[in-house]
Automatic annotation (TrEMBL):
UniProt keyword Signal present: yes
Keywords of the record: Signal
Signal peptide coordinates: 1-26
Source organism: Streptomyces rugosispiralis
Protein name: ABC transporter substrate-binding protein
Phylogenetic classification of the source organism: Bacteria, Bacillati, Actinomycetota, Actinomycetes, Kitasatosporales
InterPro entries: Peptide/Ni-bd, SBP_5, SBP_5_dom
Signal keyword on record: yes
Entry-linked SUPFAM superfamilies: Periplasmic binding protein-like II
Domain Solute-binding protein family: 82-411
Pfam families reported in the protein's UniProt record: SBP_bac_5
């Protein structure tokens, strides 16, 4: 099977709700003013902790850098189809283990080095050798990598894997320069059309169009990603012209300010962003299955979404969004039933214990946290609610140290069921051999077997009450009316700026 590149396609924005001289990247404090000329400013909620997504968890870094600063051999288009990027074509051997990629000939990194198959080999092998985040496991199926020539790369897997090529469209597929990985946290070096020009910590990141880029140059010479902790401030920034786009609406109840106004465009679609009520399956009260089931029955999901997210979004009941081929509606597994929740809580023996609900200071989490607390308390739970600064405090307390019973976080990475629940060492600490066996079967089987096994895995996960899925975040964007290239659905973890323009 061979896949070839068509004429290079313009990219599209695909966000979840994240230097002209790289040495000049700074952490200054000057706020960004109104966008002028051939520039664009986009409002976002979650700022990266640094620029190194190989060692730092969270979606904010690939949101800002993937497809813009870093490129991949293959990427997703808006339909979810895998297309060529730094590879012009690829083929798969009959035994479904060896991929052969033919690479572009004229790509260079922002440090001036030429991109070759040796860099691609280095990048693939480096995931297992140097990465520390959970996503590194997605490359563990690789057996060997060979640079056949400067423009031909051969990757042989240990076994057939339906998932591996898809993962090459994500952060683990990012191509790095062999001479440009010493200071990734502050000096990202990629083949993409943009470089980081400036970073005003706590305020904004500015990307500049790169001279000598190998592909089609993006429309905007400068793009500023401006971060807001307050949704109202973000809305006001668009209304006053300080920004041009709200990349992910953080206050859906405020949409009336932009609808039916010819100055703005409102886009509403779907995302990969499951808003998860995370449960600590490894310790404390949530290790008890009946207590977890009680939590699920205690949540009135429709009322919650209406209250904290203005009814925008979709109830799904599991860890698979509708844009994935194995989606199924699992909301019927745990319909709201307060009496059943009370009964299960009593049977669990965990009644009377205080649950620590520790949430990040992100708009959807803070808005929904009080609703979750109230609904659980009405079912007989005792709940202590803590808000932790995001990203630093939440990543340390909840994600790294697992010092929590419940949390609320939007898992916006694509096809992340395996990452979040397939490794018992991950912060959810879910440990179910039957679930992992289904994931393995899905990865190695035919496409039909993959879909069947993934549906079974998602159902098992939901039945086991490994977490509660509050709702799926909508792709809710608002922009100046003349901004073009904005997508209806968000299918990737990147905020791809390359296809944006102005009419």
């Amino acid at each position: 099977m061979t896949h070839k590149r068509p004429a290079r396609l313009p990219g599209t924005v695909a966000a979840a709700l994240a230097c002209l001289s790289l040495a000049a990247c700074s952490a200054g404090s000057t706020s960004v003013g109104k966008p002028t000329g051939n520039s664009l400013s986009i409002g976002l909620a979650a700022e990266p902790a640094n620029f190194d997504f190989t060692r730092t968890d969270g979606a904010a870094i690939p949101q800002a850098l993937l497809d813009n600063v870093y490129e991949t051999l293959v990427k997703l288009d808006q339909s979810g189809t895998i297309r060529p990027d730094l590879a012009t074509s690829w083929s798969l051997s009959k035994d479904r283990r060896t991929y052969t990629f033919h690479l572009v000939k004229d790509a260079t990194f922002s440090n001036g080095a030429r991109f070759t198959a040796e860099d691609a080999k280095f990048s693939v092998e480096r995931v297992g050798r140097a990465w520390t985040v959970a996503q590194k496991a997605q490359m563990s199926v690789v057996d060997r990598v060979r640079a056949v020539s400067p423009t031909e790369l051969e990757v042989t897997l240990k076994k057939p894997s339906n998932d591996w090529l898809y993962r090459m469209t994500t952060r683990v597929g990012a191509m790095f320069s062999r001479t440009g990985v010493r200071e990734l946290a502050t000096e990202p070096v990629g083949t993409g059309p943009y470089v980081v020009r400036n970073w005003n910590r706590g305020d904004s990141i500015t990307l500049a169009r790169r001279k000598g880029y190998w592909g089609r140059a993006p429309h905007f010479a400068s793009v500023t990603l401006k971060y807001f902790k307050d949704p109202t401030a973000m809305n006001n920034a668009l209304l006053t012209g300080t920004i041009n786009v709200i990349g992910q609406m953080q206050s859906p109840e405020s949409l009336y300010r932009f609808q039916n106004n010819s100055k703005y465009r409102v886009i509403e679609g779907t995302t990969n962003g499951e808003v998860v009520l995370s449960l600590n399956n490894g310790s404390g009260p949530m290790k008890n299955r009946k207590a977890r089931q009680a939590v699920r029955y205690a949540i009135d999901h429709k009322a919650l979404m209406d209250t904290c997210w203005a009814g925008r979004g979709k109830l799904i009941g599991g860890m698979v969004p509708p844009t994935d081929p194995w989606y199924q509606n699992l909301t019927g597994l745990y319909p709201y039933d307060r009496d059943k929740a009370r009964k299960l809580l009593k049977e669990s023996g965990e009644a009377g214990r205080t649950l620590r609900l520790r949430i990040p200071t992100l708009p959807y989490a803070t808005a929904c946290g009080t609703v979750v607390k109230s609904q659980l308390e009405q079912a007989g739970f005792k709940v202590e609610l803590d808000q932790l600064e995001f990203p630093a405090a939440w990543l340390t307390t909840v994600f790294k140290n697992s010092d929590y019973d419940l949390s609320i976080i939007g898992h916006v990475e694509p096809r992340d069921m395996q990452t979040v629940f397939g490794d018992k060492g991950y912060y959810t600490h879910y440990d179910n051999p039957a679930f992992r066996a289904l994931l393995k079967k899905a990865d190695q089987g035919s496409r039909e077997q993959q879909i069947t096994a993934m549906r079974a895995a998602a159902r098992l996960l939901s039945e086991d009450a490994a977490a509660d899925w509050l709702f799926l975040l909508p792709n809710l964007m608002v922009a100046d009316a003349d901004i073009t290239g904005l997508p209806v659905n968000s299918v990737s973890e990147s905020l791809d700026l390359t296809g944006l323009g102005r009419s």
